[in-house]
Design brief:
heterodimer; A: mainly alpha; MetI-like fold; two-stranded antiparallel ribbon; 2 strands; globular; B: 289 residues; mainly alpha; 0% strand
Chain lengths: 330, 289
Protein backbone atom coordinates (compact mmCIF):
# COMPACT_ATOMS: atom_id res chain seq x y z
CA UNK A 1 0.00 0.00 0.00
CA UNK A 2 2.68 2.49 0.99
CA UNK A 3 4.80 1.71 -2.03
CA UNK A 4 2.15 2.61 -4.55
CA UNK A 5 1.21 5.82 -2.78
CA UNK A 6 4.77 7.06 -2.71
CA UNK A 7 5.19 6.32 -6.38
CA UNK A 8 2.05 8.26 -7.13
CA UNK A 9 3.21 11.20 -5.06
CA UNK A 10 6.68 11.14 -6.44
CA UNK A 11 5.60 11.06 -10.04
CA UNK A 12 5.37 14.78 -10.85
CA UNK A 13 8.64 15.62 -9.15
CA UNK A 14 10.53 13.08 -11.13
CA UNK A 15 8.99 14.31 -14.31
CA UNK A 16 10.45 17.71 -13.50
CA UNK A 17 13.84 16.16 -13.01
CA UNK A 18 13.60 14.70 -16.44
CA UNK A 19 15.46 11.46 -15.79
CA UNK A 20 15.30 8.33 -13.72
CA UNK A 21 17.38 8.63 -10.61
CA UNK A 22 17.95 6.23 -7.80
CA UNK A 23 16.91 2.64 -7.49
CA UNK A 24 13.18 3.24 -7.57
CA UNK A 25 11.22 1.73 -10.44
CA UNK A 26 10.30 4.25 -13.08
CA UNK A 27 6.66 5.29 -13.03
CA UNK A 28 5.05 3.76 -16.03
CA UNK A 29 3.25 6.56 -17.88
CA UNK A 30 0.97 3.99 -19.48
CA UNK A 31 0.03 2.64 -16.13
CA UNK A 32 -0.93 5.99 -14.66
CA UNK A 33 -2.78 6.95 -17.79
CA UNK A 34 -4.67 3.67 -17.72
CA UNK A 35 -5.45 4.33 -14.11
CA UNK A 36 -6.85 7.75 -14.91
CA UNK A 37 -8.92 6.37 -17.77
CA UNK A 38 -10.10 3.62 -15.54
CA UNK A 39 -11.26 6.11 -12.94
CA UNK A 40 -12.99 8.31 -15.44
CA UNK A 41 -14.61 5.81 -17.77
CA UNK A 42 -15.23 2.67 -15.75
CA UNK A 43 -18.50 4.01 -14.29
CA UNK A 44 -19.83 4.24 -17.83
CA UNK A 45 -18.63 0.75 -18.55
CA UNK A 46 -20.49 -0.46 -15.47
CA UNK A 47 -23.81 1.05 -16.45
CA UNK A 48 -23.35 0.38 -20.17
CA UNK A 49 -24.57 -3.22 -20.37
CA UNK A 50 -27.66 -2.36 -18.40
CA UNK A 51 -28.46 0.69 -20.49
CA UNK A 52 -27.74 -1.15 -23.72
CA UNK A 53 -30.44 -3.74 -22.99
CA UNK A 54 -32.65 -1.21 -21.29
CA UNK A 55 -32.59 1.12 -24.30
CA UNK A 56 -32.98 -1.54 -26.97
CA UNK A 57 -35.67 -3.61 -25.26
CA UNK A 58 -37.26 -1.11 -22.89
CA UNK A 59 -37.09 2.52 -23.94
CA UNK A 60 -37.05 2.18 -27.69
CA UNK A 61 -40.08 -0.12 -27.95
CA UNK A 62 -41.96 2.06 -25.49
CA UNK A 63 -41.47 5.17 -27.59
CA UNK A 64 -41.86 3.33 -30.87
CA UNK A 65 -45.25 2.08 -29.70
CA UNK A 66 -46.42 5.68 -29.67
CA UNK A 67 -45.05 6.25 -33.17
CA UNK A 68 -46.48 2.99 -34.50
CA UNK A 69 -49.90 3.83 -33.11
CA UNK A 70 -50.08 6.55 -35.78
CA UNK A 71 -49.59 3.99 -38.55
CA UNK A 72 -51.44 1.19 -40.20
CA UNK A 73 -49.39 -1.94 -39.55
CA UNK A 74 -50.74 -5.41 -40.23
CA UNK A 75 -49.46 -8.56 -38.60
CA UNK A 76 -49.37 -10.22 -42.02
CA UNK A 77 -46.67 -7.80 -43.23
CA UNK A 78 -45.17 -6.10 -40.18
CA UNK A 79 -42.50 -4.47 -42.33
CA UNK A 80 -44.98 -2.22 -44.15
CA UNK A 81 -46.11 0.88 -42.31
CA UNK A 82 -48.52 3.49 -43.59
CA UNK A 83 -49.06 6.85 -41.89
CA UNK A 84 -52.68 7.28 -40.81
CA UNK A 85 -52.38 9.99 -38.16
CA UNK A 86 -54.88 9.67 -35.34
CA UNK A 87 -57.09 7.29 -37.28
CA UNK A 88 -56.35 4.36 -34.96
CA UNK A 89 -57.36 6.40 -31.94
CA UNK A 90 -60.52 7.64 -33.65
CA UNK A 91 -61.45 4.02 -34.39
CA UNK A 92 -60.86 3.09 -30.78
CA UNK A 93 -62.96 5.90 -29.37
CA UNK A 94 -65.81 4.92 -31.64
CA UNK A 95 -65.58 1.25 -30.79
CA UNK A 96 -67.90 -0.10 -28.11
CA UNK A 97 -65.60 -3.05 -27.44
CA UNK A 98 -62.83 -0.64 -26.42
CA UNK A 99 -65.12 1.11 -23.95
CA UNK A 100 -66.37 -2.23 -22.73
CA UNK A 101 -62.77 -3.34 -22.11
CA UNK A 102 -62.01 -0.08 -20.34
CA UNK A 103 -65.07 -0.50 -18.09
CA UNK A 104 -64.23 -4.11 -17.33
CA UNK A 105 -60.63 -3.22 -16.51
CA UNK A 106 -61.87 -0.58 -14.09
CA UNK A 107 -64.43 -2.76 -12.33
CA UNK A 108 -62.16 -5.80 -12.10
CA UNK A 109 -59.43 -3.46 -10.90
CA UNK A 110 -61.57 -2.17 -8.04
CA UNK A 111 -62.97 -5.63 -7.25
CA UNK A 112 -59.49 -7.09 -6.99
CA UNK A 113 -57.48 -4.25 -5.50
CA UNK A 114 -59.68 -3.01 -2.66
CA UNK A 115 -60.34 -6.32 -0.84
CA UNK A 116 -56.79 -7.46 -1.52
CA UNK A 117 -55.17 -4.44 0.12
CA UNK A 118 -57.60 -4.35 3.03
CA UNK A 119 -57.02 -8.02 3.79
CA UNK A 120 -53.29 -7.54 3.38
CA UNK A 121 -53.37 -4.74 5.93
CA UNK A 122 -55.22 -6.90 8.42
CA UNK A 123 -52.90 -9.84 7.85
CA UNK A 124 -49.85 -7.64 8.26
CA UNK A 125 -51.25 -6.45 11.57
CA UNK A 126 -51.54 -10.06 12.73
CA UNK A 127 -48.10 -11.00 11.40
CA UNK A 128 -46.70 -8.07 13.35
CA UNK A 129 -47.50 -9.76 16.65
CA UNK A 130 -44.95 -11.95 18.33
CA UNK A 131 -45.74 -15.24 16.64
CA UNK A 132 -44.64 -18.80 17.01
CA UNK A 133 -43.14 -20.01 13.72
CA UNK A 134 -43.23 -16.49 12.27
CA UNK A 135 -41.34 -17.54 9.16
CA UNK A 136 -43.74 -20.37 8.44
CA UNK A 137 -46.75 -18.03 8.32
CA UNK A 138 -44.97 -15.58 6.09
CA UNK A 139 -43.76 -18.17 3.62
CA UNK A 140 -47.11 -19.95 3.58
CA UNK A 141 -48.95 -16.72 2.83
CA UNK A 142 -46.49 -16.00 0.04
CA UNK A 143 -46.87 -19.34 -1.76
CA UNK A 144 -49.62 -18.06 -4.07
CA UNK A 145 -47.06 -15.54 -5.31
CA UNK A 146 -44.88 -18.47 -6.38
CA UNK A 147 -47.76 -19.87 -8.41
CA UNK A 148 -47.86 -18.58 -11.95
CA UNK A 149 -50.87 -16.81 -13.38
CA UNK A 150 -51.41 -19.72 -15.73
CA UNK A 151 -51.25 -22.49 -13.14
CA UNK A 152 -53.43 -20.54 -10.71
CA UNK A 153 -56.05 -19.70 -13.30
CA UNK A 154 -56.29 -23.27 -14.57
CA UNK A 155 -57.11 -24.47 -11.05
CA UNK A 156 -59.60 -21.70 -10.41
CA UNK A 157 -61.36 -22.46 -13.70
CA UNK A 158 -61.97 -25.95 -12.37
CA UNK A 159 -62.97 -24.73 -8.90
CA UNK A 160 -65.40 -22.27 -10.44
CA UNK A 161 -66.93 -24.83 -12.82
CA UNK A 162 -70.67 -24.35 -13.08
CA UNK A 163 -71.71 -28.00 -12.85
CA UNK A 164 -68.91 -29.81 -11.04
CA UNK A 165 -66.88 -27.03 -9.47
CA UNK A 166 -66.12 -27.03 -5.78
CA UNK A 167 -67.27 -23.45 -5.24
CA UNK A 168 -70.78 -24.16 -6.46
CA UNK A 169 -70.82 -27.44 -4.56
CA UNK A 170 -70.00 -25.56 -1.36
CA UNK A 171 -72.51 -22.83 -2.15
CA UNK A 172 -75.21 -25.42 -2.68
CA UNK A 173 -74.40 -26.63 0.81
CA UNK A 174 -75.53 -23.28 2.20
CA UNK A 175 -78.51 -23.11 -0.11
CA UNK A 176 -77.27 -20.82 -2.88
CA UNK A 177 -78.19 -22.02 -6.34
CA UNK A 178 -75.54 -22.80 -8.94
CA UNK A 179 -73.80 -19.60 -10.03
CA UNK A 180 -72.61 -19.41 -13.62
CA UNK A 181 -69.11 -18.08 -12.99
CA UNK A 182 -68.30 -18.04 -16.69
CA UNK A 183 -71.10 -16.21 -18.42
CA UNK A 184 -72.48 -13.83 -15.82
CA UNK A 185 -70.98 -10.35 -15.97
CA UNK A 186 -70.61 -9.80 -12.25
CA UNK A 187 -69.97 -13.39 -11.33
CA UNK A 188 -67.22 -13.80 -13.93
CA UNK A 189 -65.57 -10.54 -12.94
CA UNK A 190 -65.67 -11.55 -9.29
CA UNK A 191 -64.15 -14.91 -10.20
CA UNK A 192 -61.34 -13.29 -12.19
CA UNK A 193 -60.73 -10.81 -9.38
CA UNK A 194 -60.54 -13.58 -6.83
CA UNK A 195 -57.60 -15.10 -8.71
CA UNK A 196 -55.76 -11.78 -8.49
CA UNK A 197 -56.65 -11.45 -4.82
CA UNK A 198 -55.47 -14.97 -4.10
CA UNK A 199 -52.11 -14.42 -5.77
CA UNK A 200 -51.23 -11.01 -4.35
CA UNK A 201 -52.71 -10.65 -0.83
CA UNK A 202 -49.81 -12.37 0.92
CA UNK A 203 -47.26 -10.38 -1.03
CA UNK A 204 -48.84 -7.07 -0.07
CA UNK A 205 -49.19 -8.22 3.52
CA UNK A 206 -45.43 -8.70 3.66
CA UNK A 207 -44.87 -5.23 2.24
CA UNK A 208 -47.14 -3.73 4.90
CA UNK A 209 -45.44 -5.83 7.55
CA UNK A 210 -42.06 -4.48 6.50
CA UNK A 211 -43.38 -0.94 6.85
CA UNK A 212 -44.91 -1.71 10.26
CA UNK A 213 -41.64 -3.11 11.53
CA UNK A 214 -39.95 0.12 10.51
CA UNK A 215 -42.19 2.15 12.84
CA UNK A 216 -40.09 3.08 15.88
CA UNK A 217 -41.13 1.26 19.05
CA UNK A 218 -41.15 4.39 21.20
CA UNK A 219 -44.12 5.71 19.20
CA UNK A 220 -46.13 2.73 20.42
CA UNK A 221 -44.72 3.04 23.90
CA UNK A 222 -45.64 6.70 24.06
CA UNK A 223 -49.13 5.92 22.82
CA UNK A 224 -49.45 3.13 25.36
CA UNK A 225 -48.33 5.42 28.15
CA UNK A 226 -50.99 7.86 27.05
CA UNK A 227 -53.45 5.05 27.58
CA UNK A 228 -54.23 4.38 23.92
CA UNK A 229 -55.91 1.04 23.35
CA UNK A 230 -54.59 -1.40 20.74
CA UNK A 231 -57.21 -0.36 18.25
CA UNK A 232 -56.36 3.29 18.79
CA UNK A 233 -52.66 2.54 18.45
CA UNK A 234 -53.39 0.89 15.12
CA UNK A 235 -55.42 3.86 13.93
CA UNK A 236 -53.26 6.67 15.24
CA UNK A 237 -49.74 5.25 15.09
CA UNK A 238 -49.62 2.40 12.58
CA UNK A 239 -51.87 3.76 9.86
CA UNK A 240 -50.29 7.23 9.59
CA UNK A 241 -46.83 5.68 9.49
CA UNK A 242 -48.01 3.34 6.75
CA UNK A 243 -49.44 6.03 4.51
CA UNK A 244 -46.57 6.18 2.00
CA UNK A 245 -46.49 2.38 1.78
CA UNK A 246 -50.24 2.19 1.28
CA UNK A 247 -49.97 4.76 -1.48
CA UNK A 248 -47.15 2.75 -3.02
CA UNK A 249 -49.13 -0.49 -3.01
CA UNK A 250 -52.19 1.27 -4.38
CA UNK A 251 -50.13 2.55 -7.31
CA UNK A 252 -48.48 -0.81 -7.97
CA UNK A 253 -51.78 -2.69 -7.75
CA UNK A 254 -53.47 -0.17 -10.01
CA UNK A 255 -50.74 -0.60 -12.58
CA UNK A 256 -51.13 -4.35 -12.29
CA UNK A 257 -54.90 -4.04 -12.68
CA UNK A 258 -54.56 -1.85 -15.75
CA UNK A 259 -52.51 -4.47 -17.53
CA UNK A 260 -54.49 -7.49 -16.32
CA UNK A 261 -54.12 -10.16 -18.97
CA UNK A 262 -53.30 -13.73 -18.05
CA UNK A 263 -56.15 -14.36 -15.61
CA UNK A 264 -59.01 -13.36 -17.93
CA UNK A 265 -57.28 -14.93 -20.96
CA UNK A 266 -57.13 -18.37 -19.39
CA UNK A 267 -60.39 -18.00 -17.54
CA UNK A 268 -62.02 -17.63 -20.96
CA UNK A 269 -60.77 -21.01 -22.18
CA UNK A 270 -60.39 -21.58 -25.90
CA UNK A 271 -61.56 -18.15 -27.08
CA UNK A 272 -59.97 -16.41 -24.13
CA UNK A 273 -58.81 -13.31 -25.98
CA UNK A 274 -62.46 -12.24 -26.23
CA UNK A 275 -62.84 -12.43 -22.46
CA UNK A 276 -65.97 -14.57 -22.46
CA UNK A 277 -68.72 -15.17 -24.96
CA UNK A 278 -70.14 -11.67 -24.63
CA UNK A 279 -66.82 -10.05 -23.68
CA UNK A 280 -68.05 -9.83 -20.12
CA UNK A 281 -64.53 -9.91 -18.73
CA UNK A 282 -62.41 -8.67 -21.63
CA UNK A 283 -59.79 -6.30 -20.25
CA UNK A 284 -57.71 -3.71 -22.10
CA UNK A 285 -54.79 -6.14 -22.14
CA UNK A 286 -56.94 -8.79 -23.82
CA UNK A 287 -58.37 -6.24 -26.24
CA UNK A 288 -54.82 -5.26 -27.23
CA UNK A 289 -53.95 -8.91 -27.79
CA UNK A 290 -57.10 -9.52 -29.82
CA UNK A 291 -56.54 -6.47 -32.01
CA UNK A 292 -52.90 -7.31 -32.68
CA UNK A 293 -52.76 -11.07 -32.90
CA UNK A 294 -56.27 -12.17 -33.83
CA UNK A 295 -57.44 -9.24 -35.99
CA UNK A 296 -53.86 -8.58 -37.19
CA UNK A 297 -54.04 -4.80 -36.58
CA UNK A 298 -50.70 -4.09 -34.93
CA UNK A 299 -51.09 -0.33 -35.33
CA UNK A 300 -54.38 -0.35 -33.51
CA UNK A 301 -52.91 -2.60 -30.81
CA UNK A 302 -50.30 0.12 -30.31
CA UNK A 303 -53.05 2.69 -29.94
CA UNK A 304 -54.60 0.53 -27.19
CA UNK A 305 -51.19 0.24 -25.52
CA UNK A 306 -50.65 3.98 -25.68
CA UNK A 307 -54.13 4.59 -24.23
CA UNK A 308 -53.16 2.34 -21.33
CA UNK A 309 -50.02 4.41 -20.94
CA UNK A 310 -52.02 7.63 -20.82
CA UNK A 311 -54.32 6.14 -18.20
CA UNK A 312 -51.30 5.19 -16.13
CA UNK A 313 -49.85 8.69 -16.46
CA UNK A 314 -53.17 10.05 -15.25
CA UNK A 315 -53.08 7.71 -12.26
CA UNK A 316 -49.49 8.71 -11.52
CA UNK A 317 -50.44 12.39 -11.65
CA UNK A 318 -53.39 11.88 -9.30
CA UNK A 319 -51.13 9.92 -7.01
CA UNK A 320 -48.46 12.61 -6.97
CA UNK A 321 -51.12 15.19 -6.18
CA UNK A 322 -52.49 13.05 -3.36
CA UNK A 323 -49.01 12.44 -1.97
CA UNK A 324 -48.32 16.16 -1.90
CA UNK A 325 -51.64 16.86 -0.19
CA UNK A 326 -50.85 14.24 2.42
CA UNK A 327 -47.43 15.71 3.03
CA UNK A 328 -48.91 19.18 3.48
CA UNK A 329 -51.44 17.86 5.97
CA UNK A 330 -48.72 16.57 8.21
CA UNK B 1 -37.31 -14.38 15.67
CA UNK B 2 -38.50 -17.78 16.78
CA UNK B 3 -38.03 -18.95 20.36
CA UNK B 4 -38.03 -15.45 21.74
CA UNK B 5 -37.90 -15.22 25.47
CA UNK B 6 -40.57 -12.71 26.38
CA UNK B 7 -38.65 -9.80 27.83
CA UNK B 8 -39.84 -8.47 31.13
CA UNK B 9 -41.56 -5.24 30.32
CA UNK B 10 -42.54 -2.35 32.47
CA UNK B 11 -46.20 -2.80 33.38
CA UNK B 12 -47.24 0.51 31.81
CA UNK B 13 -45.97 -0.66 28.44
CA UNK B 14 -47.73 -3.97 28.48
CA UNK B 15 -50.02 -2.85 25.70
CA UNK B 16 -47.44 -1.26 23.43
CA UNK B 17 -48.21 -2.47 19.92
CA UNK B 18 -45.30 -4.52 18.82
CA UNK B 19 -44.32 -6.56 21.84
CA UNK B 20 -47.72 -8.21 22.05
CA UNK B 21 -47.97 -11.92 21.74
CA UNK B 22 -50.53 -13.15 19.28
CA UNK B 23 -53.72 -14.43 20.85
CA UNK B 24 -55.73 -17.44 19.71
CA UNK B 25 -57.85 -15.20 17.50
CA UNK B 26 -54.78 -14.04 15.55
CA UNK B 27 -53.64 -17.61 15.10
CA UNK B 28 -57.09 -18.69 13.97
CA UNK B 29 -57.30 -15.96 11.32
CA UNK B 30 -53.78 -16.65 10.12
CA UNK B 31 -54.52 -20.36 9.90
CA UNK B 32 -57.64 -19.61 7.88
CA UNK B 33 -55.75 -17.47 5.38
CA UNK B 34 -52.90 -19.96 5.21
CA UNK B 35 -55.39 -22.70 4.42
CA UNK B 36 -56.91 -20.48 1.74
CA UNK B 37 -53.46 -19.83 0.29
CA UNK B 38 -52.49 -23.47 0.19
CA UNK B 39 -55.82 -25.06 -0.70
CA UNK B 40 -55.80 -24.39 -4.48
CA UNK B 41 -52.29 -25.81 -4.69
CA UNK B 42 -53.16 -28.92 -2.74
CA UNK B 43 -56.30 -29.37 -4.76
CA UNK B 44 -54.26 -29.10 -7.97
CA UNK B 45 -52.45 -32.20 -6.80
CA UNK B 46 -55.74 -33.90 -5.83
CA UNK B 47 -57.24 -33.22 -9.25
CA UNK B 48 -54.04 -34.32 -10.97
CA UNK B 49 -54.29 -37.67 -9.20
CA UNK B 50 -57.82 -38.38 -10.50
CA UNK B 51 -59.16 -38.88 -13.98
CA UNK B 52 -61.21 -36.70 -16.24
CA UNK B 53 -64.53 -38.49 -15.66
CA UNK B 54 -64.19 -38.29 -11.89
CA UNK B 55 -63.66 -34.52 -12.15
CA UNK B 56 -66.94 -34.25 -14.03
CA UNK B 57 -69.03 -35.49 -11.12
CA UNK B 58 -70.27 -34.01 -7.87
CA UNK B 59 -69.20 -33.88 -5.16
CA UNK B 60 -65.72 -32.94 -6.31
CA UNK B 61 -62.93 -35.22 -5.08
CA UNK B 62 -61.43 -34.19 -1.75
CA UNK B 63 -58.69 -36.76 -1.50
CA UNK B 64 -55.99 -38.19 -3.73
CA UNK B 65 -56.66 -40.89 -6.28
CA UNK B 66 -54.23 -43.22 -7.99
CA UNK B 67 -53.75 -41.62 -11.37
CA UNK B 68 -51.01 -39.14 -10.55
CA UNK B 69 -48.11 -40.95 -12.30
CA UNK B 70 -50.14 -41.57 -15.45
CA UNK B 71 -51.34 -37.98 -15.64
CA UNK B 72 -47.89 -36.58 -14.97
CA UNK B 73 -46.49 -38.75 -17.74
CA UNK B 74 -49.13 -37.52 -20.19
CA UNK B 75 -48.51 -33.92 -19.17
CA UNK B 76 -44.77 -34.41 -19.52
CA UNK B 77 -44.97 -35.89 -23.01
CA UNK B 78 -48.26 -35.20 -24.74
CA UNK B 79 -48.71 -31.71 -23.32
CA UNK B 80 -45.08 -30.81 -23.85
CA UNK B 81 -44.35 -29.97 -20.22
CA UNK B 82 -41.00 -31.76 -20.34
CA UNK B 83 -39.63 -29.53 -23.07
CA UNK B 84 -41.32 -26.53 -21.47
CA UNK B 85 -39.65 -27.15 -18.13
CA UNK B 86 -36.22 -27.55 -19.69
CA UNK B 87 -36.73 -24.36 -21.68
CA UNK B 88 -37.93 -22.44 -18.66
CA UNK B 89 -35.03 -23.52 -16.48
CA UNK B 90 -32.69 -22.28 -19.20
CA UNK B 91 -34.58 -19.03 -19.74
CA UNK B 92 -35.15 -18.15 -16.09
CA UNK B 93 -31.61 -19.18 -15.15
CA UNK B 94 -30.04 -16.99 -17.83
CA UNK B 95 -32.26 -14.06 -16.94
CA UNK B 96 -31.51 -14.38 -13.22
CA UNK B 97 -27.79 -14.56 -13.91
CA UNK B 98 -27.83 -11.61 -16.31
CA UNK B 99 -29.97 -9.50 -14.02
CA UNK B 100 -27.74 -10.14 -11.02
CA UNK B 101 -24.52 -9.47 -12.91
CA UNK B 102 -25.50 -6.38 -14.89
CA UNK B 103 -27.66 -4.84 -12.20
CA UNK B 104 -25.02 -5.27 -9.51
CA UNK B 105 -22.29 -3.45 -11.43
CA UNK B 106 -24.72 -0.76 -12.55
CA UNK B 107 -26.13 -0.45 -9.04
CA UNK B 108 -22.58 -0.15 -7.68
CA UNK B 109 -21.77 2.63 -10.16
CA UNK B 110 -24.94 4.49 -9.17
CA UNK B 111 -24.28 3.98 -5.47
CA UNK B 112 -20.58 4.74 -5.11
CA UNK B 113 -19.03 6.22 -8.25
CA UNK B 114 -19.25 9.71 -9.56
CA UNK B 115 -19.88 10.32 -13.24
CA UNK B 116 -21.71 12.70 -15.50
CA UNK B 117 -25.49 12.31 -15.90
CA UNK B 118 -25.59 9.99 -12.92
CA UNK B 119 -28.68 11.63 -11.46
CA UNK B 120 -30.47 11.85 -14.78
CA UNK B 121 -29.75 8.24 -15.70
CA UNK B 122 -30.92 7.01 -12.33
CA UNK B 123 -34.09 9.03 -12.63
CA UNK B 124 -34.70 7.55 -16.09
CA UNK B 125 -34.22 4.05 -14.71
CA UNK B 126 -36.52 4.52 -11.74
CA UNK B 127 -39.07 6.47 -13.77
CA UNK B 128 -39.64 3.61 -16.20
CA UNK B 129 -39.65 0.97 -13.48
CA UNK B 130 -43.41 0.95 -13.34
CA UNK B 131 -44.16 0.98 -17.04
CA UNK B 132 -45.96 -2.25 -17.88
CA UNK B 133 -44.30 -4.48 -20.46
CA UNK B 134 -47.41 -4.57 -22.62
CA UNK B 135 -46.61 -1.08 -23.79
CA UNK B 136 -43.63 -2.31 -25.75
CA UNK B 137 -44.96 -5.64 -26.95
CA UNK B 138 -45.80 -4.67 -30.53
CA UNK B 139 -42.45 -3.14 -31.53
CA UNK B 140 -40.64 -5.99 -29.81
CA UNK B 141 -42.70 -8.43 -31.80
CA UNK B 142 -41.93 -6.59 -35.04
CA UNK B 143 -38.22 -6.75 -34.25
CA UNK B 144 -38.11 -10.43 -33.43
CA UNK B 145 -40.33 -11.23 -36.40
CA UNK B 146 -37.84 -9.47 -38.67
CA UNK B 147 -34.92 -11.24 -37.04
CA UNK B 148 -36.73 -14.57 -37.42
CA UNK B 149 -36.61 -15.15 -33.69
CA UNK B 150 -40.20 -16.13 -33.10
CA UNK B 151 -40.18 -19.47 -31.30
CA UNK B 152 -36.54 -19.05 -30.30
CA UNK B 153 -35.66 -18.74 -26.65
CA UNK B 154 -33.48 -15.65 -27.11
CA UNK B 155 -36.67 -13.82 -28.01
CA UNK B 156 -37.83 -14.15 -24.40
CA UNK B 157 -34.41 -13.99 -22.73
CA UNK B 158 -32.95 -10.80 -24.20
CA UNK B 159 -35.83 -8.36 -23.53
CA UNK B 160 -35.89 -9.27 -19.82
CA UNK B 161 -32.18 -9.80 -19.26
CA UNK B 162 -31.88 -6.66 -17.14
CA UNK B 163 -34.40 -4.92 -14.94
CA UNK B 164 -34.71 -1.38 -13.72
CA UNK B 165 -35.91 -2.73 -10.41
CA UNK B 166 -32.71 -4.75 -10.10
CA UNK B 167 -30.50 -1.69 -10.55
CA UNK B 168 -32.54 0.25 -8.03
CA UNK B 169 -32.54 -2.65 -5.57
CA UNK B 170 -28.77 -3.12 -5.76
CA UNK B 171 -28.10 0.59 -5.55
CA UNK B 172 -30.20 0.92 -2.40
CA UNK B 173 -28.40 -2.00 -0.85
CA UNK B 174 -24.88 -0.88 -1.73
CA UNK B 175 -25.38 2.74 -0.68
CA UNK B 176 -25.57 1.50 2.89
CA UNK B 177 -23.76 -1.82 2.87
CA UNK B 178 -20.59 -0.76 1.07
CA UNK B 179 -18.53 1.74 3.10
CA UNK B 180 -16.91 4.46 1.03
CA UNK B 181 -13.65 3.91 2.92
CA UNK B 182 -13.47 0.36 1.64
CA UNK B 183 -13.66 1.60 -1.94
CA UNK B 184 -11.07 4.28 -1.21
CA UNK B 185 -8.72 1.81 0.43
CA UNK B 186 -8.90 -0.54 -2.51
CA UNK B 187 -8.19 2.35 -4.84
CA UNK B 188 -5.16 3.32 -2.75
CA UNK B 189 -3.96 -0.22 -3.15
CA UNK B 190 -3.99 0.43 -6.84
CA UNK B 191 -6.89 -1.86 -7.58
CA UNK B 192 -8.45 -1.25 -10.96
CA UNK B 193 -12.21 -0.78 -11.10
CA UNK B 194 -12.72 -4.34 -12.29
CA UNK B 195 -10.65 -5.76 -9.47
CA UNK B 196 -12.59 -3.54 -7.12
CA UNK B 197 -15.87 -4.97 -8.35
CA UNK B 198 -14.63 -8.53 -8.14
CA UNK B 199 -12.87 -8.39 -4.78
CA UNK B 200 -14.83 -5.78 -2.86
CA UNK B 201 -18.27 -5.14 -4.35
CA UNK B 202 -19.34 -8.70 -5.11
CA UNK B 203 -18.42 -10.09 -1.67
CA UNK B 204 -20.26 -7.25 0.08
CA UNK B 205 -23.26 -7.47 -2.23
CA UNK B 206 -23.59 -11.24 -2.10
CA UNK B 207 -26.70 -11.48 0.11
CA UNK B 208 -28.55 -8.91 -1.98
CA UNK B 209 -27.39 -10.58 -5.18
CA UNK B 210 -28.78 -13.89 -3.96
CA UNK B 211 -32.14 -12.31 -3.19
CA UNK B 212 -32.26 -10.46 -6.51
CA UNK B 213 -31.36 -13.67 -8.29
CA UNK B 214 -34.19 -15.57 -6.64
CA UNK B 215 -36.74 -12.82 -7.24
CA UNK B 216 -35.70 -12.54 -10.91
CA UNK B 217 -35.87 -16.29 -11.31
CA UNK B 218 -39.40 -16.44 -9.91
CA UNK B 219 -40.46 -13.52 -12.06
CA UNK B 220 -38.90 -14.95 -15.21
CA UNK B 221 -40.43 -18.36 -14.51
CA UNK B 222 -43.89 -16.81 -14.22
CA UNK B 223 -43.54 -14.19 -16.96
CA UNK B 224 -46.63 -14.44 -19.10
CA UNK B 225 -47.58 -11.86 -21.71
CA UNK B 226 -44.43 -11.63 -23.76
CA UNK B 227 -43.65 -15.37 -23.91
CA UNK B 228 -47.26 -16.08 -24.95
CA UNK B 229 -46.86 -13.58 -27.79
CA UNK B 230 -43.33 -14.55 -28.83
CA UNK B 231 -43.45 -18.34 -28.56
CA UNK B 232 -45.78 -21.09 -29.74
CA UNK B 233 -46.44 -24.65 -28.65
CA UNK B 234 -43.54 -25.75 -30.85
CA UNK B 235 -40.97 -24.47 -28.38
CA UNK B 236 -42.82 -23.28 -25.28
CA UNK B 237 -41.91 -22.12 -21.82
CA UNK B 238 -43.99 -23.46 -18.95
CA UNK B 239 -46.44 -20.58 -19.08
CA UNK B 240 -46.89 -20.93 -22.84
CA UNK B 241 -47.48 -24.67 -22.51
CA UNK B 242 -50.01 -24.09 -19.72
CA UNK B 243 -51.76 -21.52 -21.88
CA UNK B 244 -51.96 -24.14 -24.60
CA UNK B 245 -53.49 -26.55 -22.09
CA UNK B 246 -56.00 -23.92 -20.98
CA UNK B 247 -57.03 -23.33 -24.56
CA UNK B 248 -57.89 -26.97 -25.05
CA UNK B 249 -54.63 -28.43 -26.40
CA UNK B 250 -55.21 -31.59 -24.35
CA UNK B 251 -58.89 -31.68 -23.34
CA UNK B 252 -58.43 -33.67 -20.16
CA UNK B 253 -58.82 -31.78 -16.88
CA UNK B 254 -56.71 -34.21 -14.87
CA UNK B 255 -53.83 -33.89 -17.34
CA UNK B 256 -54.21 -30.10 -17.31
CA UNK B 257 -53.93 -30.12 -13.52
CA UNK B 258 -50.90 -32.40 -13.73
CA UNK B 259 -49.34 -29.87 -16.09
CA UNK B 260 -50.09 -27.01 -13.71
CA UNK B 261 -48.56 -29.04 -10.90
CA UNK B 262 -45.40 -29.77 -12.90
CA UNK B 263 -45.07 -26.12 -13.82
CA UNK B 264 -45.41 -24.91 -10.23
CA UNK B 265 -43.55 -27.59 -8.32
CA UNK B 266 -39.99 -26.31 -8.94
CA UNK B 267 -40.88 -22.89 -7.55
CA UNK B 268 -42.71 -24.39 -4.58
CA UNK B 269 -39.62 -26.45 -3.80
CA UNK B 270 -37.49 -23.32 -4.03
CA UNK B 271 -39.89 -21.61 -1.65
CA UNK B 272 -39.64 -24.39 0.89
CA UNK B 273 -35.86 -24.15 0.89
CA UNK B 274 -35.30 -20.42 0.40
CA UNK B 275 -38.64 -19.08 1.59
CA UNK B 276 -37.06 -17.15 4.42
CA UNK B 277 -34.61 -15.39 2.12
CA UNK B 278 -37.28 -14.61 -0.48
CA UNK B 279 -39.58 -13.19 2.19
CA UNK B 280 -36.67 -11.15 3.53
CA UNK B 281 -35.87 -9.85 0.08
CA UNK B 282 -39.42 -8.75 -0.62
CA UNK B 283 -39.64 -7.01 2.73
CA UNK B 284 -36.30 -5.30 2.31
CA UNK B 285 -37.21 -4.13 -1.17
CA UNK B 286 -40.43 -2.76 0.27
CA UNK B 287 -38.90 -0.63 2.99
CA UNK B 288 -36.38 0.95 0.71
CA UNK B 289 -38.63 1.14 -2.31
Amino acid sequence: MTATTTVAEGAPRREQGGGHHGGRPAPDPWRSRLCRWDLRYSPYAFVAPFFLFFTVFGLFPLLYTGWASLHRIELTSPGRTEWVGLHNYARLLGNEFFWNALRNTATIGVLSTVPQLLMALGLAHLLHYRLRAATFWRVALLTPYATSVAAATLVFVLLYGRDYGMVNWALRGVGIGPVDWQSGTWSSQIAVSSIVIWRWTGYNALIYLAAMRAVPDDLYEAAALDGASRARQFRHVTLPALRPTVLFTVVVSTIGATQLFGEPLLFGGAGGQKGGASRQFQTLGLYLYEQGWFNFHLGRACAVAWSMFLILLLIAAVNALLARRLRQDR
Amino acid sequence: MTATVPARRRPGLARAGRQLHAGPFAYAVLALFTAGSLFPLVWTAVAASRDDTRLARTPPPLWFGGNLPANLARAWGEAGMGLALANTVLVAGTIALGTVLFCTVAGFAFAKLRFRFRGALLLLTVGTMMVPPQLSVVPLFMVIARLGWTDHLQAVVLPTLVSAFGVFFMRQFLVEALPGELVEAARMDGASSWRLVWHVVFPVARPAMAVLGMLSFVQAWNDFFWPVVALTQENPTVQVALTGLGRGYVPDQAVIMAGALLGTLPLLLAFTFFGKQIVGGIMRGAVKG
